[in-house]
Design brief:
The protein is α+β, with helices and mostly antiparallel strands and 254 residues long. 22% of the residues lie in helices and 31% in strands. It is globular.
């Protein structure tokens, strides 16, 4: 069967649509979960037990899930990913547009690894002797809006996954205390599925005084999602062909 020039052009355009690489929105899903909702995006893996336990025990007022599929197939360099995720000081470069201030601001004017939970002395992210494996570190993330943030960060390394669990060990303040100790939780699970790199991201605020929070923070869900998303996107920094913008995308806003 001989095709006309018009038919050939139409078939060519269809082929381009089919083989075109997916954009970040096509590879990215998110869900805002209320205490009465279930977690819709969480993969059924042993590593997500920490998320299930936190969610069931705390019934957080605000939760966000994100599931991202890195583009392309191929060998995953877990070691490279691990040390990217250990590079806490990179968060000092993270800027965002503040609608409140009407300008770009650094989200974390100071972000670094602390000597210990009680000692805020700055130390390198890691050294030449740092082992590629399970670790617990403490970080100081002094946000422009939520001040004096001290966090415990746990890294767990498995043959086909890396997990990071982050939880605040100090009160997070604006003018008053907004988030109490242990009430801000983030969990990033990078895992391989069908030769593809995936990441499940969970973040939650467990708020003791929601009335005060709503007075200080206009959109708690977006405030939570913005922090979780921007920490994640900044740390991976284009790893494995990631096409996520570092800046908080419109499709995640309330």
């Amino acid at each position: 069967m001989k095709l006309s020039a018009k038919q050939i052009i139409i078939l060519f355009l269809i082929a381009l649509i089919v083989i075109a690489p997916a954009g970040s929105e096509d590879l990215f899903r998110h869900n805002y979960a209320s205490p009465d909702d279930g977690l819709e995006l969480m993969p059924l893996r042993d590593e997500t037990l920490s998320v299930r336990e936190f969610y069931n025990e705390n019934k957080p007022a605000y939760s966000v899930e994100m599931l991202y599929e890195f583009p392309g197939l191929g060998e995953i360099n877990w070691r490279e990913l691990y040390f990217k995720l250990r590079s806490i000081s990179r968060l000092e470069e993270l800027s965002y547009y503040s609608e409140y201030a009407g300008k770009y601001r650094n989200m974390f004017p100071r972000a670094y690894v602390m000597r210990s939970a009680r000692d805020k002395t700055r130390i390198p992210d890691y050294s030449d002797d740092t082992v590629f494996g399970d670790a617990e570190i403490y970080a100081f993330l002094d946000e422009v809006e939520l001040k004096d943030g001290r966090y415990r960060i746990n890294y767990s390394v498995h043959p086909d996954s890396i997990q990071i669990r982050i939880r605040n060990i100090s009160n997070l303040r604006r003018f008053l205390k907004v988030v109490g100790k242990e009430d801000f939780y983030m969990d990033f699970l990078f895992f391989e599925e069908n030769r593809r790199l995936m990441v499940y991201v969970y973040g939650a605020f467990t708020l003791k005084n929601e009335f005060i929070v709503l007075k200080l923070v206009k959109y708690p869900s977006s405030t939570l999602a913005k922090r979780v998303y921007m920490v994640f996107s900044s740390l991976i920094d284009g790893f494995h062909g990631a096409v996520l913008p570092v800046e908080f995308p419109d499709y995640l806003r309330e």
